[in-house]
Amino acid sequence: MRRLTEQGLAILMFSSELPEVLGMSDRVLVMREGRIVRAFEQGEATQEKVMKAATGCESE
Asked: According to the model, what pLDDT value does residue 22 have?
């Protein structure tokens, strides 16, 4: 996948495996109830932040 992105291609990856997502993504979009609720740039997302966005508990 990295080789493809180096060639300028975009890849959409859907996964519930957060370590995999965080390690391979330039940007992480979090969906809840069929809508994008949060976007994180590379290095900004953590497992905790993603889970809070996914569960609607970001304000806690």
From this structure: 92
